Amino acid sequence: EVQLVESGGGLVQPGRSLRLSCAASGFTFDDFGMHWVRQAPGKGLEWVAGISWNGGNTDYAGSVKGRFTISRDNAKNSLYLQMNSLRGDDTALYYCGKDKASGYHGSGVDYWGQGTLVTVPS
Amino acid sequence: QSVLTQPPSVSAAPGQKVTISCSGSSSNIENNYVSWYQQLPGTAPKLLIYDNYKRPSGIPDRFSGSKSGTSATLGITGLQTGDEADYYCGTWDNSLSVVVFGGGTKLTVL
User: Is A90 helix (H, G, I), strand (E, B) or coil?
Assistant: First the structure.
């Protein structure tokens, strides 16, 4: 059974940093691209970042580029999101997602974690 | 404003059919695969359709997807009260180099 378990969320002051983690199990982690997708309270889905199977390719939403860094450790079956210079509009539930393919270019996110909440007071 | 445009809400009676549209452009929908997601209240999104029309294992054939040009459509037949959820389309945008989602459509089964 595929499982994605996010952790690391919490209340953080503006300008500070936070690192999210996603522990993956139930599939061959290094065969698939991965995503971070967030959802602000009462709002829709917003893609944050994607990473290819080997970490060789990454992309970011414009709203986080230069502040957030996605990475993965295939030996630990883990995905990370380093978030720096946090702002009030970064407040959201952050989901980790597995792509159907080795990349992240829109094949579809076929498994999602339950999310970890990041709150940045504005 | 979302890059992909969906109607904010749709509604229909149990047993009926509903369609949800997703409008984009040549930089996204027209030249990339479209996915559809269902998000039940208080839960994580779930993949319903990928590669425009394919259904993951376990998704009933009441759910269907299609694409034509710069638009995609999700169809749901035999509506059930359990289908009440938010539905999102998503695809890759070649110009922006990001995954883009529609703003979401709230389905109400009356």
Answer: helix
Q: Do B35 and A62 touch (CB under 8 A)?
A: no
Q: How far apart are the first and last CA of chain B?
A: 28
Joined together, the tokens standing for residue A110 give: 């076929």
Most distant CA atoms of chain B, gap in Å? 40
Q: Give A71-120 pLDDT, tens digit per residue.
A: 999 999 999 999 999 999 999 999 999 999 888 897 899 999 999 999 99
Residue of B nearest to A115 (CA): B44
- β-strands A3-7, A109-112: how paired? unpaired
Tokens (6 digits) for B66: 């299609």
Residue in B13, B53, B19 with CA at minimum distance from that of residue B33: B53
Which chain B residues contact residue A35 at CB under 8 A? 99
**Burial group, residue B58, by CB count within 10 angstroms (0-12, 13-18, 19+):** exposed
